[in-house]
Amino acid sequence: MTGSTRQTLPVLIAAPIGADANNTARILADAGIASEICQDLSMAAGKMNEDCGALLLTEEATASPECGLVRDVLANQPPWSDLPIVLIESSRRGRKTGNAALTCLGSPLAAVVLERPLHASTLVTAVRSSLAARLRQHQIRDLLHERDHLLGSLEAQVAERTAKLRQAVEELEGFSYSVSHDLRAPLRVLDGYARALAEDYGSRLDSQAHLYLDRISRAAQRMDRLTQDVLAYSRVSRMTLSLQAVDLDGLLPDVIEQYPTLAPFKASFDIHRPLGTVLGHPPLLVQCFSNLLENAVKFAEPDRTLKVVVRTRRKDDQVRIIVQDNGRGIDGDNLERIFGLFERAAPKETEGTGIGLAIVKKAVERMGGQIRVSSRPGKGTEFRLDLQAAPDGAPPASA
Amino acid sequence: MTPSPYLLVAEDDDDDFFLLTRELSKAGLKSVARTADGKATLEYLRGTGPYRDRAKHPFPDVLFLDLKLPLMLGHEVLQEIRKEPKWKALKVYVLTGSDEHRDRERIDALGCDGYYVKPLGAAQLAQIFPRR
């Protein structure tokens, strides 16, 4: 790039006296420098484009009213460009007038003023150094172009990947919709026929056959719950959230009332009001409370009346929600595992899919909080959810 | 005693249809017609195509509408039903395989007499058809 650029950049020569222009052009040609003679400044202004190496002009030339044209071109160069000017001063009895001439050109910074009488070698040196500077400018221009090109392709790449990601999310949503409808359908049928068989032909079946039918039903129901829980987990993981002030005193009683698995145990839930307001997403909070309370019900100690205390503690801008039960408790070895997908710390015969607490953890994390657990086997378990407090004055939403 | 209502079940799945009619029949509801896709369901209601003969294909009192129907989805069928003022008396109960938020929102916007996740059991039927 650099070699060829150097050879092809011509120097524009603007001198009103033809002999001056021709002489200058010859001197430059002898030094291997290409040039182009312009009859006047208007022609020079027309040729001052990117591919011009420098503008060489005599002071006499700047006296023309067309000087303004050159000034305009110089003033409107692209950011990388500063066309070098070589100005040859006229000799007026030792008076230095070159700077005044430069003013006519708008005082360009990249300018050299040469005094007369002028040596050919001085001229060539000045022009060469101007052309070298111009070459650097062209290198900067090329780098800038390269940068713009890279930025452009980067933007295109980002746009392309965003589109792909969006498509993937849509496919995933379509997939989960199909899973939820189509994968569950055969399970419903399996369970339906097992029940129908037990009901319609029950009298002809012995107790062993009824046991088998019961097991078919239960396996189908379990698979159905698993499917639903996996879907809930994936929904919690990818749903779009907008955190808002949520009034827990409004939300929690609704959860207990509306969940058929919780409503019968209403008397066991001891809610210490006021619970206050957190910054959260109502559906995710419903998911957290329902899963935690259902867990407490599921793992109640059979010999004790279940008691679940729900309370909160405010610390700075955080609200800690504490859900404490007097159930069976969890063995220390299993405590870390309970938040993992498909992990179960309960005996095999206990109902559950091993996804509930993974959903709670994911939901809490998505609301910018964290969850911890401590437990004493045989005594009970305590879950602590740390969420952000709603800023004062924010209107609370309910589920 | 009021006469047994005439039911139309829009359901493409044979097993779901069998299990539903079994429950209906246990509840004493035996006048049941079936369409297996969305387009046929609208044809039935309009009395067009193969359903021209109203003596054979009476206009139903109640429609059980599955959401995931071939040719035309359940919510699209419901949309058409809502455009027809003369079908205002038709009771529409939506049945879905899975309680999906998006489905429910779409159906709620159109309005229906009930939204149930399959299978429909005796308890729900008692709710829909209180002591006739």
What does this 3D model show about the protein?
The complex is a heterodimer of chains A (399) and B (132). Helices cover 50% and strands 16% of the residues of chain A. Chain A is built from eleven helices and twelve strands. In chain A, strand 9 and strand 10 (318-325) form a beta hairpin. The longest helix of chain A has 81 residues, at 120-200. Chain A is elongated. The two termini of chain A are 67 Å apart. Chain B is of the alpha/beta class. Chain B has a five-stranded parallel beta sheet. Chain B starts with 6 loop residues before the first strand and ends with a helix. The chains are: A alpha/beta (399), B alpha/beta (132).
Order of helices and strands of chain A: HEHEHEHHEHEHHEHEEHEEHEE
The low-confidence parts of chain B are none
> Any low-confidence stretches of chain A, pLDDT <50, length ≥5?
1-6
Number of helices of chain A: 11
Which terms summarize this structure?
heterodimer, A: 399 residues, alpha/beta, five-stranded parallel beta sheet, five-stranded mixed beta sheet, 16% strand, elongated, B: 132 residues, 5 helices, 37% helix, 17% strand, globular
SSE arrangement:
The complex is a heterodimer of chains A (399) and B (132).
Chain A: H1 2-8, E1 11-14, H2 18-30, E2 35-38, H3 41-47, E3 54-58, H4 59-62, H5 67-75, E4 85-88, H6 98-104, E5 111-114, H7 120-200, H8 207-238, E6 244-247, H9 248-258, E7 269-271, E8 277-280, H10 282-298, E9 308-315, E10 318-325, H11 356-366, E11 370-376, E12 380-388
Parallel strand pairs in A: 1-2, 1-3, 3-4, 4-5, 7-9
Antiparallel strand pairs in A: 6-8, 9-10, 10-12, 11-12
Chain B: E1 7-10, H1 14-26, E2 32-35, H2 38-46, E3 62-66, H3 74-83, E4 91-96, H4 101-110, E5 114-117, H5 122-128
Parallel strand pairs in B: 1-2, 1-3, 3-4, 4-5
Helix pairs in contact in B: 2-3, 3-4
How would you summarize this macromolecular structure in one to three sentences?
Helix content of chain A is 50%, strand content 16%. Chain A is α/β, with parallel strands linked by helices. Chains A and B meet through helix 7 of A and helix 1 of B.
